Amino acid sequence: MSSTLNSAIDVVARVVSGDGPTVVVVIQQKGGSGKSTITVNLAAVAGNSSVMHNDVEAAAVVAAGIDPQGSLERWADRVAEEHLPFDYLVTRGELGILPKLAKDPNRKRIYVDTPGFMEIDEDAEWGADPLGDGKVADAMREVLDLAHFAIVPITPEWLSWEPAEFTIERILKPRGIPFLVVINLHDPRDGEAALDKVKEWIDERGYPRMADPIRRYVIHSRAAEKGLVVTQYDPSGTALRAKEDFSALALTVEQVL
Q: Which structural domain range is residue 160 located in?
């Protein structure tokens, strides 16, 4: 385990307290980094297994979305109820809903999918809140006030790197929110060179990260349309590897928490 990941564990141990659920926010300034896929499948793995070190009811795990477009809801609505291993909630930017859920002692984990935030205040001073104004910005502030931990997806695509750094340096660090960087959408056919490059970029900044990436498979891109989560994929080598990726992420997050 890296020293930076150990540091994240120490910080979370100081932050998480009380009887309510732990709130994990999946956040990245840039859209297209796979936040919704991570949120849904992380909740699916947590709600479908004992990764949290003890058996839990599916209702103890919640996938929540604050995007006014409600993309998480459209996905979850397509999953057969008997196969949905978590509860879900979509606020569509309405304030006050998540704070109430975060006080529910019957919940164990809330994984929150967040939208990209491009309408930022470019003139905000360093250390000041750059989220700007508007419904989405207010919803982001509300969930960040509740967050115990954050997952920051980054892809091998260079264009996602600077927004990830902005998210960490301007949004998470000033609020004291511990985080984990997750390399997402890595195409195994691209080989190790591209993967090594993004790992080096992350490590140079001392950010805690998952050792292995979440790989890019066509099966993920079709899952929402088909109403599937990773724990339901038809048996195949690809499906097994896809589930392994999210199981590893869930176990790492639980290790931190």
A: 3-256
Q: What CATH number corresponds to the domain at position 193?
A: 3.40.50.300
Query: CB of 150 within 8 A of CB of 177?
Result: yes
Mean pLDDT of 107-114: 95
Q: What is the pLDDT of residue 18?
A: 58
- Domain total of the chain: 1
Q: What pLDDT digit, counting tens, does each position of 132-164 carry?
A: 888 889 999 999 999 999 999 999 999 999 999
